[in-house]
Amino acid sequence: MSASEQGGMERHQYDVIVVGAGGAGLRAAIAAHDAGAKTAVVCKSLLGKAHTVMAEGGIAAAMGNRWPEDNWEVHFRDTMRGGKMLNNWRMAQLHAQEAPERVQELEDWGALFDRTEDGLISQRDFGGHKYARLAHVGDRTGLEMIRTLQQRTVELGIDVFMECTVTDLFKDESGAISGAFGYWRETGRFIQFDAPAVILATGGIGKSFKVTSNSWEYTGDGHALAMRAGAALINMEFVQFHPTGMVWPPSVKGLLVTESVRGDGGILKNSEGKRFMFDYIPEFFKSETADTEEEADAWYEDKKNNRRPPELLPRDEVARAINSEIKAGRGSPHGGIFLDIASRRTPEFIKKRLPSMYHQFKELADVDITAEPMEIGPTCHYVMGGVEVDADTQESAVPGLYAVGECSGGMHGSNRLGGNSLGDLLVFGKLAGEHAAKKVSGLGANRPAVAPDDVAAAATSAVAPFEVEGGENPYAIQHDLQQAMNDLVGIIREGAELEQALADIEALKERAKQMVVEGHRQYNPGWHLALDLRNMLIVSESIAKAALAREESRGGHTRNDFPKTDHEVWGKKNLVVTLNDSGDGVQLSEKPLPVMPDELKKYFEES
Amino acid sequence: MGYRLKMKLWRGDKSGGELKDYEVDVSEGEVVLDAIHRVQAEQAGDLAVRWNCKAGKCGSCSAEINGKPRLMCMCRLSDFEEDETITVTPMRTFPVVRDLVTDVTFNYEKAAELPSFSPPPRDADGKRRMAQVDVERGQEFRKCIECFLCQNVCHVVRDHEDNKPAFAGPRFFIRYAELDMHPLDTNDRRELAQGAAGIGMCNITKCCTEVCPEGIKITDNAIIPMKERVVDKKYDPLVWLGSKIGIRNKDTESRVPAKQGKAGHIKRPAH
Amino acid sequence: MASTDARESTSGSMEAGVGGPTRADVGVRTLRGDRWWLAPLTTFVVFFGFIVYATFRAFAGKDYYSAPYLSPFYSPCLGDCVEGSSDFGQPFSWFPLSAALIILIFPLGFRMTCYYYRKAYYRAFWLSPPACAVAEPHGSYSGETRFPLIFQNMHRWFWYAAVAIGLILTFDTVISFREQTGVDASGHPTFEWGHMGLGSLLMVINVVLIWAYTLGCHSCRHIMGGRLRHFSKHPVRYKLWTWISKLNGNHARYAWLSLFSIALVDLYIWGLAAGWYDDPRFF
Does B90 sit within 8 Å of C219, measured CB to CB? Predict the structure, then answer.
């Protein structure tokens, strides 16, 4: 045992603790470090394995390398319209303004983006973006981004606690953040961090759904930690179902098929061979979407004189259309529909632009995408909702607690445009890191202290699954939760089903109290899951409750019983979720949307 | 379609272990990791296995399947006969933690020792310009998902623990190559590649290339070119003669020697 | 089977590696059950066969020339060679042994230091390692960092020599298309173009394979373009590099094929010189 350990517990002191080592976490850590703070990153997996590696398409940034007409105002407008105007306008503005510089910065740190003929960073088309705007590296942009940030983090000498899970946050009596509590996955030993600023960058919640493109880590840890610390979540009803996930074989069901397939010319067809997206163009996007195949196909070459193909509508629209086609019995043999690029582009083009997709289908499904269409269907991909934060500082309602990336809310409104997540991570990661560092340096020696009783309570709570009498298997509870969320809180929702979901979640919460974990604390996945499950349950409850309350359809929230978008009532407010007073469930409230200043409103007047 | 699969999984830790027999139901299209997850969910809740994306993109689930280093998530059961027993052990080059999980800190320390990218200032308009043909060589190496299978299979450290301090391994030779081929970089890494990274330890027997799940031509496109770059500097009579009579290589003359990075910031639990 | 053998031969050397105290205690040298030993064994047998043949022929010092064909083992023939075989003079006519030994160091050195052959013989002859994920039998290892293996870095020197040898073999091949018609007044032989026998054909095949091997060399690939950091500024060298990279991708294949073709041409000329058969003529 080292000297810093007391009673079998390690203890470390930092200025800023970043929880999560994806794009947002690493960018925040770099910014905090650069601002002079003693910074550490704490992550559940090995460094460089975070879910950011799964991002494929690119980083949306109005750099204007392909289209000089592109600028932040256009990007801002696209983002707001994609989110059906429910976005926090200030976040959308900051994001559009700062994303280009954040991308250039990656290049300074060694990222190798694909190039234009002039040697600039190449940009590709994506759904909902007016211009080709996504900086990319083939279809593995996320890998490039995380590796670049990882290498920068290591170069700067920032401390990284790998395979270490944070289970609790500490506050002092004034309610300000004073530290965090966690355990080493490898040994099960506890670890206490004393830090006046904690930045949550834990990603999403997708593991609560059965069919998902998300990895095991996506258990809503940041969402739950924030709520338990007293912060609020907003927009939790909005869950993005990516239109194109693999549907076969069963073991990879849900695995992402990048939107770049459509951006690079791929089209959607039903079992009758019909290119059906022309039947699903909503009024809202009619003026900017092609209504004939000729125009749609011409757009790839000539964007000035043609409108975009309907395959490149925002993700919520495409996912709903695919869902309808499958329900109408025009699906593919394995219950999806067809995504075809083989008949539209040469094998060389496909292999060059979409190497990982080629590889993925070849290796996992025995399908050669240069020769035959892919079978795809919607998959749970992203949660728009998250911790409510101040747009400029990323600080939550709890002093010293910050949230960035997927676990924060507001930026994407009711639906996120493809490519905006990677930009989100960089832009707000940097802001959060800087503000957290600034806040800490402002505190001087006057730091919030961790109460020893809180540490003892956190330790007791963490080992509780070993001490419970009962017989519930955490894997079984997880399975049942995923099934319930998938069936009842999925892409198309209904009041009665949501009520059923809430009842099911209550029952699962009861079962979770009887969870038993076998073995000891050393690298024990059963125990890890038992702890993560608490977060999954509370986040699932938040989603179902908010979804039941929002009686309209908008973006990533579609109600069968309320199919219309209601701008008058629901277009003006966010739903806010907080922990209830007894701490065993969540409660809802409403909050008016922040008001957009007039000089920004003008971008939306013509539509 | 489904059948009952026989597996032998290595269970144990530093103090010892053994191959234990399991039988589990599997179905069409599944991979080894699916079978292991089912064992975990139904028979051995505490079976330690490291994994993340289950799509061959994060490089977490590296192990040895029937003795061959592979990603468990990309190893399809249809590659085996239905009556064949599949044996899975942890990677055998790194210290074992528990069951199928090893401590891969070695690789993170080597990564930290690497000299980093060192670019010149941006162009006047705040952007950088590089030609696609010039970035493509580096892009091949940046496909690396850091599964560390190449590090695991490399006999230099697999069979000789004592070489670990002096040898960076294939994963980091491709990083050296990537940086040395970077069209903008201002550093010269040849001295470090031969010295600190120990590229001379490699006897190019190519197992790293054989096991790479990303199909990176580690030996032909990175290690040998790096060895050749070292030869340029130290062993080529014509280059030596050329420099004596004033012929210089414009690509390298402006570069300054790179500095080694410092390890020690990756924190691991005390044992 | 293989793994059972390995189980029995668990020796002390494993403790330096996969049997070490921190590693998972699997207990055997390898769990591979496929025929991993087949490739190194094949390499060993074939390579060993070639060495025996080449050694015998190099020391033989006879039956290497049958006009107009000169065996590649003896080209250029710089020692006390038979009449008509020395196109580049006989500066080493004092050399008491076979003339092949004077020049054989160059192709031999080129192949011994070749990146492909190194892989092949390190695996097959030195078992370092015998196959991937099969523990090697050595207790310690220093790679190519020390004498003598540090001399593998001389590959490029040998490549320069190999280009010269390649040119000479090309010359030999070209002159296999002419034949001697007599001698002129001063006693010099006179030649006429337009001959082609089976030997010419074999020599053409051989020289093409030799060039495919020599130009596909990793050092060549590096010198021609690989050393650059900006392909975009050197379009011609980039083209060359691209072209050589394709050859290089098949380096192992050309390494073996050219080895066989050298032996075959030599064997054919041996037979001609020894009078076992006549050279079939095409024209």
Answer: no
**Region C120-143: what's the mean pLDDT?**
95
| Residue from B205, B226, B239 to probe the interface with C (highest C Cβ count within 10 Å) | B205
- Mutation site for B-interface testing, chosen from A53, A123, A187 by largest number of B Cβ within 10 Å: A53
pLDDT (mean) for B17-34: 95
Q: Do B127 and A120 touch (CB under 8 A)?
A: yes
* Cα distances (Å, whole numbers) of residue A296 to A283, A306, A321, A350: 17, 7, 17, 19
Q: How far is C87 from chain B (nearest CA, A)?
A: 28
Q: Where are the beta strands (DSSP E) in B41-132?
A: 62-65, 68-71, 86-89, 96-98, 101-102
To which H or E segment does residue A192 belong?
Answer: strand A190-194
- Please report the domains of chain B, with CATH numbers, ordered by start residue: 3-101 (3.10.20.30), 104-257 (1.10.1060.10)
The Cα of C250 is separated from the nearest Cα of chain B by a number of Å equal to: 11
Q: Give the per-residue pLDDT at A605.
A: 84
**Minimal CA–CA distance to A122: which of A76, A57, A69?**
A57
Single pTM value for the model: 0.94
Check CB contact under 8 Å for A359 and B56. Answer: yes
- Average model confidence (pLDDT) for chain C? 92
**Contact at CB, B54 and A215, closer than 8 angstroms:** yes
Rounded-to-integer distance, Cα A408 and Cα A235, Å: 10
What is the ipTM metric for this complex? 0.95
Going by pLDDT thresholds of 50, 70 and 90, the confidence category of residue B253 is low
The answer, for B267 touching chain A at a CB cutoff of 8 Å, is yes
The domains found in chain A, sorted by start residue, are 18-240+382-443 (3.50.50.60), 244-378 (3.90.700.10), 454-559 (1.20.58.100)
Is residue A275 annotated as part of the catalytic site, yes or no? Answer: no
Q: Is C89 left (phi over 0), alpha (psi -120 to 50) or beta?
A: left
Q: Which residues in chain A land under pLDDT 50?
A: 1-6, 607
Identify the active-site residue in A315, A320, A521, A559: A315
